[in-house]
Amino acid sequence: MTEQDATQTDETGLAIPVVAVVGRPNVGKSTLVNRILGRREAVVQDVAGVTRDRVAYDANWGGRQFTLVDTGGWEPDAQGLQAMVSRQAEQAVVTADLVLFVVDSRTGATETDLLVARTLRRAKKPVVLAVTKVDDERGESDAAELWSLGLGEPYPVSGLHGRGSGDLLDAVLALLPTAPMEADPVDGPRRVALVGRPNVGKSSLLNRLTGEERSVVDSVAGTTVDPVDSLVELGGQTWRFVDTAGLRKRVNTASGMEYYASLRTASAIEAAEVAVVLLDSSEVISEQDQRVISTVIESGRAVVVAFNKWDLVDEERREYLDREIDWELQRVQWAPRVNVSAKTGRAVDKLAVALRLALESWDRRIPTGRLNSWLTEVVAATPPPGRGGKHPRILFATQADTRPPRFVLFTTGFLEGGYRRFIERKLREDFEFEGSPIEISVRVRERGIRGER
User: Fold this and answer.
1) CA-to-CA distance for 52 and 372, rounded, in angstroms?
2) Distance separating alpha carbons of residues 384 and 396, to the nearest angstrom
3) Which residue from 112, 175, 210, 412 could staple onto 214, CB 3.0 to 4.6 Å apart?
4) In terms of DSSP bridges, do strands 228-234 and 190-195 run parallel, antiparallel, or are they unpaired?
C-alpha cells in the first residue's frame, strides 16, 4: 500500500486528509504547491510536463495537517506517456478527500479544462477551483468568468507571489474532514532511497514492490523528476521507499529541470537511511553508475547494490559482469548485492534481507573495551609501517559515532592510507560491517602536541 493511496493517521489516530492538486499541463500546479508548502519542493520549470508522477507532501495551514498531492498534467484524451501521467492524476482524485482544480487565468477555460471539470463533477468529491497567475486586480475579472465551469466559486491566486493563497487554503480546510493538529514527528518505517542513473528501472521496481503503477514508466530516460514516496510491505516489514530522478550529473554541474531534479534526489538520499543503488545488469557499468555510487558513499548512507533486468542476462554476460564487479565496484565490495528483475519480480523479496543487513551494520556500535582488545591483536600481528625510520604506535581507539560508524585512532605518528584501509578491512571482516561505509580518522599525540589528521 502506498502512502498516498490511503488516508493516513497521525499519532493520535486522527485521519490526515488528502488534497489532490490537478489540472492540465503548465497551469502552475507545482508553483502553487510550493507556495502552499512555503518551500521549494516540487520541481518547477517554464515548460509543460515537468511533473509526471503523483507526489505527496506534508502540509499544514492554521496549525492543521493535510497531505498535498501534486500531479502531472491531466489530459483525458492523451496518448502514450502523457496518458500514463493522466492516469496518475485520475488515481489521485480517486484517493483524495478533496480536489484542488487549477486553471490558468491567462488562457481561461480550455476544452481540456471543460473535460476535466465534467469528470470532477461526476466524481462527487469536494472541489475547490484555483485560478492561477492572477498577479494583480486586473486578472480577477478573468477568474470570475470561470464560474462557468460549474465547480463553485473560483479563487484567484498567484502561486508566484502568494496573492490570494490564504483565502484559497481557508476554503480548502472548510471542506476537508477534521484534520489533526500538527504534532512532532515520530519514528516510522526505515527510509530507503532508490537511486541510479536514468532508465535502469527504478520506477518499474517501485511499481513491482507496491503492486501497482505508482510511478510513471517509459522507455525514454529521465521520466521521473520528483522523488516519489511510497510505503512498501516487504519481508514482513513496512519500508518507506523513495523513487528518485536518475542522476546524470552532480548538482553543481546540472542545469534547468535537471538541476532541480538532482537537488531533490540529493535531498532524498540525505533524508534516507539506506540507498538501493540500481544498476542495469544487461549493460556495462558506466561512469554515471560510478557517480551515483560515489554520491551515496559520500552521503554516509547504508548501501545495497541491486542488479536489475537480470532476466536479460545470459551466461556470457554473467561471466563478463563478474569481472566488471571485481574491477569497477571495488569501492563497494562490502555492500550486499541482489540480482533482481522488476519485470518478472525475480528475487525482489530478497531486498528486505539485504536492507536489514546493511542497516544493522549502519547502526552497529562496538564497545570501547572490545574494540581495543581487538586492535591490540591486529597491530601485534601486522604493525603499522614507519616513515623516516619512525614507527607510529596506536595508543587506543574509540567509536565516535554510528550511522555511519566512525572510528578515531589515537597514535604517536602518521598512519599511511594503506594501513587505514587495512584496519577498515579487518573491522569489516571481524565485526561484520556489511553494507555500511566506515569512516576512520587519526589523532596524533606526540611530544605533548595534539592534532588531528
Assistant:
1) 53
2) 14
3) 210
4) unpaired
The three-class DSSP label of residue 313 is coil
E strands present in 324-393 = 337-339
Express each pLDDT in 434-451 by its tens digit.
999 999 999 887 544 444
Angle at 214 between CA 15 and CA 49, to 5 degrees: 105
C-alpha separations of 410 from 54, 119, 275, 438 in Å: 51, 69, 32, 17
pLDDT at position 54: 62
H-run or E-run covering 421? helix 417-431
* Count of all residues that appear for the chain in the document: 453
Q: What is the pLDDT of residues 143-201, one digit of tens each?
A: 888 998 999 999 999 877 888 989 999 999 999 876 444 433 445 799 999 999 888 88
Calpha distance 204→218 (Å, rounded): 9
Phi, psi of 252 (to 5 degrees): -75, -5
pLDDT at residue number 449:
42
- Running DSSP on this structure, what letter comes out for residue 51? -
291-302: average pLDDT: 92
Q: Please check whether residue 82 is in contact with residue 49, taking contact to mean a CB–CB distance below 8 angstroms.
A: yes
The answer to whether residues 99 and 127 touch, using CB atoms and an 8 Å cutoff, is: yes
| C-alpha closest to that of 243 among 206, 199, 197, 276 | 206
Contacts (Cβ under 8 Å, ≥6 apart) of 442: 408, 409, 410, 411, 414, 415, 420, 452, 453
CA distance 59 to 70: 12
Which cell numbers hold the place of 159?
502561486
Report whether 374 contacts 441 (CB < 8 A).
no
Q: State the Cα–Cα distance between residues 78 and 65, nearest whole angstrom.
A: 34
| CA separation, residue 142 to residues 11, 91, 93, 148, 342 (Å) | 44, 30, 26, 11, 48
Backbone angles phi, psi at 80, to 5 degrees: 65, -140
Collapsing DSSP to helix, strand or coil, 344 comes out as coil
Question: What count of Cα atoms within 13 Å lies in the side-chain half-sphere of residue 197?
Answer: 18
Q: How many CB atoms lie within 10 A of CB 13?
A: 7
Measure the CA–CA gap between 3 and 227, rounded to whole angstroms: 13
Cell of 107: 488562457
Q: What is the mean pLDDT of the chain?
A: 81
| Residue, of 188 and 288, whose pLDDT is higher | 288
